[in-house]
Specification:
The protein has 29 helices and 4 strands. It is mostly helical. Strand 2 and strand 3 form a beta hairpin. The chain is flat and about 105 Å long.
Length: about 550
């Protein structure tokens, strides 16, 4: 492999994942217009549309890439990038040759430009500006910045972020969102240029205004591909760079940051308060903590207020501060108590953690079942400290609140450890029989009573319960499978009933179910000594469904 293609198929597979990698293989013939630069390779890859793919093959982070397909625009290494990478691997020796030509062309262009006179350069730039409106906008912004015309720069940025040129009936459709994002990104470049030109204070002001304008624009854009999120993140980065260059007033910056993080734009920009520690200094961070605490005291249940306080507490290692935030807004099912318990465990304070978890059970609101994970946590703690009777009592409460097969199994495990399962089982079955009498069903269908008895291995009792209640077909199938050795006639009746509706359906999944039932029927007939009846049934089935070739193939494979 040529040195200039310093990657292989394994690298592409690792970046793209197995699925996108295999799809990329099928696009090798769709790669056209390959161009090679110093560290990049671009191409057009034809799929649902013609997509522009760019591989960075010698960047600081190794192999990377971007593509303007919907999946690539989300930041993923897509199948089009895989196809481009595989294309390079097919003929790696062409890369250094094309790279050499690209360097030569760049050097020749630079030499030609350097030889032009001022008037010739001006003529060239004017021609380019006349043909390329985007280039014109960028240069107009740079000119306004160089003149120190902040009002003009602000007006241009507002124009770039305006959705009106792309909107139809007041809304930017998905097809136009990419074009809007391309133009809006020029505002980021303009703000970054202000910082580079020594006008960081203006860049700070304009980046904040641009974030606000972008936030207003998102209500009128189909941003399915996440263009606005990327622009928002870039604006946040431009703001941080400007703050680091200009060192604005820490009090004012602290107030703005807290207001921003508590507002509606934070999810668009993703600003991390802690990135500003070097900008704010100790004094500014103290102001942040004061402002955040004041906002939290005004709204202790607000998500943004809580998150900001949690972030500050974690950054400072303040476990008690973090716990205080949680304590002000406890969930009614005890799940917040569990989060506190985990935090205290991590801090090496297990006794306090246990007390918080027990409070979670005690303070659960009436009519609300305690969080399952909280019950599991406490039962594990009780079991490890030989408090087995407490674990049983807790599992009993859990089962009474959520009568499911899982809670029944957990109660059984806890009770068996103390030797009291029979008594607990009798009480649990009383509750399940009452539910079955009221025709309460599990989320998967059928009364939990039947599932519990089957899980206990009490098949006869489960069969009686299924007969007396509205058992689900899956329960009847389980009963038939578990009991056909001793109750073949009853099991056969179940299989015949379950097979009947499948005869009217099609599809491979249906055929597999039907074949399984037929195999079970055959076993029942063998136990009953009525194989001839089964052969007649099978012959009639084949005659009536002979056009279902996949079904016939399955029957042949299983000797039916």
């Amino acid at each position: 492999m040529a040195q200039d293609v310093d990657f292989d198929e394994d690298d592409l597979r690792a970046l793209a994942g197995p699925r996108s990698f295999e799809r990329g293989r099928r696009y090798l013939d769709a790669v056209t217009a390959v161009e090679v630069g110093d560290v990049w390779v671009t191409a057009t890859v034809h799929g649902t549309d013609a997509y522009q793919a760019e591989l960075i093959i010698d960047g600081p982070d190794g192999l990377a890439g971007e593509c303007d397909c919907p999946y690539g625009m989300e930041g993923n290494f897509c199948k089009h990038l895989v196809a481009l990478g595989l294309t390079l691997l097919v003929e790696p020796e062409t890369v250094p040759r094309q790279r050499g030509r690209a360097r030569t062309r760049a050097q020749e262009l630079d030499a030609w430009l350097a030889a032009l006179s001022r008037e010739e350069l001006l003529t060239l730039v004017r021609e380019l500006v006349a043909d390329d409106r985007q280039l014109a906008r960028r240069l107009e912004l740079r000119a306004a910045s160089a003149r120190g015309d902040l009002a003009e720069v602000r007006a241009r940025i507002r124009e770039l972020l305006d959705t009106a040129p792309f909107a139809r009936y007041g809304y930017v459709e998905y097809a136009d969102a990419h074009a809007y994002g391309e133009r809006a990104s020029q505002a980021v470049s303009a703000i970054a240029a202000l910082t580079a030109d020594g006008r960081a204070a203006d860049a700070v002001s304009l980046s904040r205004e641009a974030m606000r304008l972008l936030g207003e624009a998102r209500e009128a854009i189909d941003d399915s591909d996440g263009h606005l999120g990327r622009i928002g993140a870039a604006l946040a980065e431009a703001h941080l760079d400007a703050c680091r260059a200009g060192r604005p007033d820490p009090d004012e910056t602290a107030r703005w940051l807290v207001g921003h993080l508590l507002g509606d734009l934070d999810d668009l920009t993703g600003i991390d308060l802690l990135d500003y520690e070097d900008v704010l200094g100790a004094h500014g961070m103290a102001r942040v903590r004061e402002s955040a605490a004041a906002a939290w005291r005004r709204n202790r249940t607000g998500w943004a207020e809580k998150y900001l306080m949690e972030r500050l507490a974690r950054a400072e290692g303040d476990v008690d501060g973090w716990v205080a935030v949680q304590a002000a807004d406890l969930a009614p099912d005890g799940s917040t108590h569990l989060a506190v318990a985990h935090e205290l465990d991590t801090a090496g304070r297990p006794d306090e953690a246990l007390r918080w978890a027990e409070r979670g059970i005690e303070e659960t609101f009436d009519g609300i079942a305690p969080d399952i994970a909280l019950v599991d946590y406490l039962c594990d703690r009780y079991t490890r400290t030989d408090r087995l009777s407490d674990a049983v009592a807790l599992r009993r409460v859990q089962f009474a609140a959520r009568r499911s097969l899982a809670s029944y199994q957990q109660l059984r495990t806890a009770a068996q450890a103390t030797g009291c399962w029979q008594a607990e089982r009798d009480q649990a079955l009383v509750l399940l029989r009452a539910d079955a009498g009221q025709r309460q069903r599990t989320r998967y269908g059928g009364p939990v009573l039947v599932d519990a008895l089957l899980d206990d291995g009490d098949v006869d009792a489960a069969w009686r319960a299924a007969t007396e209640t509205r058992a689900h077909d899956r329960q009847w199938l389980a009963l038939a499978d578990r009991s056909r050795a001793v109750r073949p006639a009853d099991a056969l009746a179940v299989y015949l009933r379950l097979a009947e509706p499948l005869m009217k359906q099609t599809g491979n999944a249906v055929y597999e179910q039907l074949t399984g039932l037929l195999l079970s029927m055959g076993d029942c007939h063998r136990r009953l000594g009525t194989e001839d009846e089964f052969l007649a049934y099978l012959a009639a089935l084949r005659a009536g469904h002979k056009r279902k070739r996949n079904l016939m193939r399955l029957l042949d494979q299983h000797g039916l």
